[in-house]
Write the structure tokens for this entry.
Amino acid sequence: MRVKAGSGQLRLAGSARTKRGTGATALHALRRSPQALASCLVLVLVVACALFAPLIAPKSPTDQTLLARLSPPSLTAPTGSGYLLGTDRLGRDVLSRIIYGARISVFVAVVGVAISATIGVALGLIAGFVGGIVSTLIMRLTDIVLSIPFLLLAIAVVAVLGPSLLNLVLVLGFTRWIRYTRVTFAQTLSLKEAEFVQASRATGARGVRLLLRHIFPNTLAPVIVVATLELGLMIIFEAALSFLGLGVQPPTPSWGSMLAEGRNYVATAWWLAVFPGLAIMVTVLAINVLGDWARDVLDPRMQTNL
């Protein structure tokens, strides 16, 4: 009994050291990567704007001041009555609308990725673990969906269901699961023949228990990398659909709809399109840089370079 207890304690201690080692490696890699650290700060700022928009925004995003319409950016805005990033054609504060627009982008990206990752990982695990006709049907379904241009499919579905925030999230969530399925399927195929899985099977582990306790946790690293990169794509797709008038409807501010409104004033009021475009570009760039950093940290083959 003492030997078994000692072995269990050693396993638990080793597991704890492994977890602490992984966290320490991630923090060490973050400190050594100025790009990843800057990307984290940008994303923290975007999330803060989304969560605390009423406290951060200097004005209401829907209040109209027609006498101040198309006012240029003013550096005296924090202390005076000007507008830091100017106003739009209805006299609404561009800065406040960008801050509130972060809410839409963050919500769509997070919920869309959560839905698509859940569907894709589940299908990939089933296809890779069960095999046979089930695997063939699931993977042929992914090939069919992959052959359809995503943006065209999203436009068609949203046009049929009607433009709204809920429909936009559902369309993005239920059409972006293919990458997760392919990645999880490949990982499951290799893991189910691994020695530790065979050892667990020899001790009596079967079916769902074997899949969830031994295979699924070891597929999370590549799935996290895919999800990180998909966050940026979700923001771009939301902006594209809103730009086409199929996303969030006015007067709710959205970065894509702000770009659509500003395209008619590029020559006379450049700030209407430049600042929302910069918000999209900087946010997506930060997500992509952080995704590359996560790939390097989670890939054991890259550990020697960190």
Summary: The chain is about 70% helix and 0% strand.
